[in-house]
Amino acid sequence: MDVDMDMTMMAWKSKIDINDIRADKGGNPDIYRRALALAAVAVVGVGSPSESESYIDEALSLDSQRRSSLTNLEGLRSKLSNLQITVIAPKKKAKEDITLEVEQLKQWKLEIAKLSKEVNDLELKRDAAIASINMLLEKCNFEDLESNDGVEVASAMQEENDNNGNQSLPLTKQPSLSVSAKTFTPKSQLIPSEEAAASESPPALPIISQDEIKSIPPERILNLNVGVLGHVDTGKTSLVKTLSSILSTAALDKSQQSRTRGITLDLGFSAFLLPLPEHMRTVGNSCSAESNRNCKTNGMSIDNGTSTEHSAQHQHHDLLQITLVDCPGHASLIRTIIGGAQIIDMILLVVDATKGMQTQTAECLVIAEMTTRNLIVVLNKIDLFPENEREERVRLAEKKMRAALRGTKFENAQMVGISACIGGEKVAAVGGTTSAGGGGGNAVSTAAKIASTSNIHGLLDLLQSQIRPPNRDALSSPDRFHFAVDHCFPIKGQGTVLTGTVLSGSARPNDIVEFPTLSTQKKIKGLQMFRRKANIIQQGDRAGICVSNFDAKLMERGIIASPGTVKLIRGAIAVVRKVRFFKGALNSGSKFHVSVGHTTVMATVTFWGAREIAMQVQREEDEKLEERNGSVALGKSSLGGSADLAGLPRLKFDWNQDFLHQENYIDILPASDRNELTMESESSRKGDSLPPLHWARLEFLTPVYCPMDSLVIGSRLDTEVNANACRLAFSGRLVEKYDAKSDHNRLKSYTRKERVGIVDRLGDPYRRNDDNKLVRYDIFGTDLFKKETNMKQFVGLLIETKEGDVGIIQSSFGNSGKFRVNFPGGTEINEGDSLFLRFKRYANDPKKAIHQDGSLPLARAGTSVDLPVKTKKKNKNKSKNGSTSEPAPAKVGSVQGGDDAKNRNPYGEVEKVKGELLPNDKYTVAIVSGLFSMEDDITQHKGRRVCCLATDEEGVVDGSFGKMGKCKVYFKEGISAEVGSRVQMADVD
């Protein structure tokens, strides 16, 4: 590339680094030796030319020593890691002796510390030598060197820098040349106009030329990632080849297998540049007043690599770079499609206009719903329609697609009809030659592209009109750098290059990044964006990162990140929603393929919490749901892989919350639960029926490295490829880490239990003061417990009536399993009515304790009501046959005692026998009810004789028993009568 002399000398006078003088890195130490010799001649006091030249040799020697020590250090660290993983950990698990291994571990750690210090010291010395060289060059006055020798040296240096600029990682900075951005009026057209079709020479594509691209600083270009998805053989790669002007190392099916089979087998990346649309120029194109002190008129100040960072909203961009992510379409490569879709901002859904919606088209549509809010339907291959029927056939194809999109969030998506390659997509995909390997140029000439396509201009116009400003991190913090790697390859003399997409944060040269899966860290040597050197990469950028001393075979795909920000997780709790097109059941305990970014592993999934999470969403997330549905950020795009785009709210998981046990995923909430949701549900807002949100426990069979809040996609990839069914089962947002060993018992999942009894007797009646109703405060129940049940564990539990009155079990009543219940508010229950004991038991509780959530109502006072006393006649009643019958026994609670008590012979009932066990196997004490009422003073009747009618055994009243009118009767010879036997009280002896 030709530049003027001023730029040449400025490049010569710029500071150098070690790579500029390393021949194996493309540098030329001889040029800088000659420059230092000239500086020594021109400047007094800097030493002789030979001494100045020795600075170069000293810096190279120190760098060589440092690299040698660093190699030894990395090797030792690898040995230490292998020892811990392959030897110590298995032995420790098997409880074997590891004394020798521990000693070896300590020795290696000491050596590592020593080598680390040595590497740091050598690096400081090397950097000091480089600083000396730069100081010497700074002392040299440029005007003093305007000689033939000086110009010769400068020219040689510039030539060397130009040569280096053609390498994969150029070492010189590109000049900041401005490129005027032509404004195109957005114009959507489904089919090409007759005028365009009749034109013999179609207009040039509005794509910036390759020469202009090379001269544009990457910081002034806004990058958007556009996924190209669709069924196999719909012409996706043909479309990518037509549009692309910059190719990556893995674009256009460059693998031999892809070219042989004629289909895309892996993700491909290429790009083209467009003028920034007018509607995006008015959004965030100016720096704030405070930032203007650090900004130049052309955006970020980066001349010395110390630019001030601004958010995407504060940067000024002149051009728009569209990075095309070419995804495979074959059904067996669905996990690759999922990985590609999670790094995109919008999607071009390519459809064969002659076939319409196909199986993988539907799956790509489901993925699009999870990962983006912007989608354009590209109806390809319209050239296969007869020319006289083309317009009508294209409209019919659009109508069918519109029907297929009904019910999705893309039912109003824009459509355009094109032909990416007239004559067949395989011709474009595998035919012809490319120049991508050398400099990343156009695959074919622009004229050839235009001649073999139809309505590409209509697609570009529509694309420009539909693109929206992306949502990016407000602050591009290097502490949150997260980079999805999709390709990794070595470059001789440079190092190892990792290409991928920045998911969050930012990075610069010399930053330290971590390889979580390899437990190692590396320093960034250089950055590129489509073969252009970059000083910073930020969220959304498609970039290449160069590191040294790293074996490319160790990583094919994965992530790199800021040290310590991405942890290994063996399990997680996620908020998930079923894909409504998935026809199968989501059974707890089943295994699913779970995708996080480019990683797909098997996981055991358990679902629960549908009812509780619905209440939580409506209580806490109502405003956020509105924003997510587009009412606030309407039209904005966002980097794929965001759980927000999948319709998943940001919720906190409460370990102390109780969850009703669920066997499996519930497709529809029970009617009783839906009635409790008083607020508008999300599905009613959208006008469709969405499956309810659930909590899900993901237990990964293989641990994964990923940050919390990531989007996860669950699939059943073991389903038959030709089954014509959606294999995407659910989407989710990672919320909390989960460890099966330590967290299993923390989950509070319960099952509801219910026991039903009946009212056996009623207590005394009262007239409730506040509503004048006749109620009972005490009742006696039965049939709830067995005779041998230990009642202590049930005392204090709440009992409910059918009408909703709540009471508390106060004690047992007798020894037949009966019980007494007190209702603080009173109850109108009747004898024979049902009593309900409702409680819950936690699945992980080893004690199987009983838990209840309700509470007693407030006490409501009442006034005692005396029921009429049934008086008994002195003469015995006569029966129809003339025989006499015994008087009926008095009811519990009837009024006894008073002046007439001594003249009557009331009857009672044996409730319980107790006391001393005599040699004749009889007890000495009986608890009798019915002889007295609660108001009677039983002490006044102490000593009265009581006769058991069934056995003729006699005893005497020995005192009261409780407050319910019961009394104790003492039998000197013991009582053999059974519980329930009647007794009669006689006169006082």
Automatic annotation (TrEMBL):
Ranges where the record places region Disordered: 156-204, 861-906
Signal peptide from the UniProt entry: none
Coiled coil: 91-132
Superkingdom field: Eukaryota
PROSITE patterns: G_TR_2
InterPro entries: eEFSec_C, eEFSec_III, EF-Tu_GTPase, P-loop_NTPase, SerRS_1_N_sf, T_Tr_GTP-bd_dom, Transl_B-barrel_sf
A GO cellular-component term linked to this record: chloroplast
Domain Tr-type G: 221-470
Composition skew (Low complexity), residue ranges: 190-204
SUPFAM superfamilies named in the record: P-loop containing nucleoside triphosphate hydrolases, Translation proteins
Biased composition (Basic residues): 870-879
Name this protein carries in UniProt: Elongation factor Tu, chloroplastic
Subcellular localization(s) per the UniProt record: Plastid, Chloroplast
One Pfam family named in its UniProt record: eEFSec_4th
Upper taxonomic lineage: Eukaryota, Sar, Stramenopiles, Ochrophyta, Bacillariophyta
Native source species: Discostella pseudostelligera
